[in-house]
Amino acid sequence: MPADLGQPLGADEWAAREEERLRGEVLARAPLRRLARGIGRLDARLGLLLVLAAAACFPLLVSDAYLLRMAGLTGLYVILALGLNVVAGLAGLLDLGYVAFFGLGAYAYALLASPQFDLHWPFWLVLPLAVIAVGLCGLLLGSPSLRLSGDYLAIVTLGFGQIASLLLVNLNRLDLPFLHLEAPLNITGGPNGIIRIDDARLPGFVVQTVGGYYYLILAFVGIVFVAVYHLDRSRIGRAWRAIREDELAAQAMGVDTRRLKLLAFSVGAAIAGAAGVLFAAWQGAVFPPNFDTSILIILYAMVVLGGVGSLWGALAGAVILSVLPEALRSPELARLGFYALFVGALVRKQGRERMRGLLLLGGVIALGLALRLLLPMLGPEWFVAPKLAVSVRRSLLGPPLQALNAWMLFPREARAVGNVAFVALLALLVAVARLKERLRRLVLVPTLYGLAFVWETRLMQEPSTTRMLIFGAVLVLVMNRRPQGLFGQRWVQRV
User: Fold this and answer.
1) Are residues 214 and 347 in the same domain?
2) What are phi and psi of 326, to 5 degrees?
3) Of 268, 300, 327, which closes a domain?
4) What's the rounded Cα separation, in Å, for the pair 416 and 414?
5) 6 in a domain, yes or no?
6) Vertex 305: Cα angle to 300 and 309 (nearest 5)
7) What is the DSSP letter of 240?
8) Phi-psi region for residue 92, left (φ > 0), alpha (ψ -120 to 50) or beta?
9) Which domain holds residue 162?
10) Are 205 and 120 in contact (CB under 8 A)?
11) Model-wide pTM > 0.90
């Protein structure tokens, strides 16, 4: 982990914490830090009980099946983030094959509880078997990787993830001559996956509704959170953190680094396998794209955003990065989110920097109003006046969106003009980076307006790209504000 370069040379951890305590009055003004400190003082088990109680009320307040499915998917992401936090957060092992264990757990349940091999084992029996089997796979992955660390470990585990992905796609035509089969053996269903997977059958109960699976996933969130919490506070958790901070020093102090690293791989894999079983039963079908590298990237973003090594951070990061992309499916919310980030980036600093940001913002608004008034006079047929839907206009989003429509120019050929504006924006960005301070201030106003213009004319035409841009922008801004994550602790260089 990177050291905190803001600490003076020779300052130890205690001195850094003492200095932070003396600055408490200033730091307490930050709502995010107040929230993190308040949750930090609360017993994690009591806090989890309150969170689960609030989450259990969600189906009582919402009847939309789509929202319930999104809430269930968020719970699965929480379980996966907690498992990844064991490997990468507590033990400090950069495991890029983590999603493969998620897929192995899902396919284990699909093979044992579907018409694929005409096996219909109950959920309560398959779950522990799959968890044990996937945990052993984690042990097998960790065994040849013990001598590796950092980038080398990442490459090996990434290779394992790619191998697992290829096997899921290609194990649909397995030719075994010694079995004298009439046709190649179809194990995973190939690209078509496995469908018609059985519902989760518990003793005396079969889960069939979206709400039932939501409560089942919520129960597993509580179980996994409590298990990881007690592991973190045990001797094993302290040893994992020692390995994460300095493996050589931990080994010199008598820590069995080999056994504990293998245990971290196994525990993380077992949690991912349990999440995979839940996912397969809930979705009723599994396909190879459900377990690709994009899921891994999202999971690491969740852990890093929440704070590496923090249980509450893993939970908060999973919730934020699961809910945010779905909330931004609405173009109206995406527009307001973009301009909120736009304004926040300009005025987030203090003192003179904030005043400069306000002046820049005023200049951008003035430039937009001037162009909005003058250019339509030259060629009114070149521009269009966008209209909002009646439902949007009558909602709380109506007034700010109408103000934006009255401020921004909307050319009739939006895509073509947007492409030209995008190239011009790149040239302006290069100029801003290379010009001196005074000239840079002059170029900044048209550059910022060009950014908003490109957003409206080009990027809003592609909603999927728009969502990911806001997703990345939020992550960058939060990590610039708190490099240790929302609930992570600052790392201090010890000299």
Assistant:
1) no
2) -70, -40
3) 327
4) 6
5) no
6) 75
7) H
8) left
9) 13-327
10) no
11) no
Question: What is the rounded CA–CA span in Å between residue 182 and residue 443?
Answer: 73
Establish how many alpha carbons lie within 13 A of residue 323's alpha carbon, considering only the half-sphere containing its beta carbon.
11
Task: Classify 494 as helix, strand or coil.
Answer: coil
User: What pLDDT is stored for residue 344 in this prediction?
Assistant: 82
**Helix H or strand E encompassing 52:** helix 44-56
Total structural domains within the chain: 2
H/E stretch holding 119 reads: strand 119-120
How many C-beta atoms surround the C-beta of residue 9 within 10 A?
Answer: 6
Residue 435, Cβ neighbours under 10 Å: how many? 14
Helix (H, G, I), strand (E, B) or coil at 202: strand
Same domain, 377 and 420: yes
Which two structure tokens, joined as six digits, stand for 330? 């609405």
Give the residue from 279, 291, 343 showing the smallest Cα distance to 109. 279
Decide the pairing of beta strands 119-120 and 205-206: unpaired
* CA count, 13 A, side-chain hemisphere, 148: 16
Q: Residue 105 corresponds to which tokens in the numbers above? A: 């757990």
Split the chain (495 residues) into runs of 10 and give each run's mean pLDDT: 46 54 48 57 76 92 89 96 94 92 96 93 95 94 82 89 91 76 84 94 90 95 94 93 89 90 95 97 94 91 90 92 82 82 78 83 91 86 82 82 88 86 88 82 88 85 72 75 78 47
Q: Tokens in use for 460?
A: 């809003």
Q: How far apart are CA 421 and CA 36, in angstroms?
A: 42
As given in the structure block, the two tokens for residue 446 are: 């048209």
Count of positions (residues) in the chain: 495
- Please tell me whether residues 338 and 322 are part of one structural domain: no
Expressed in percent and rounded to 5, the helix, strand and coil fractions of the chain are 75, 5, 25
Q: Cα(first)–Cα(last) distance of the chain, in Å?
A: 15
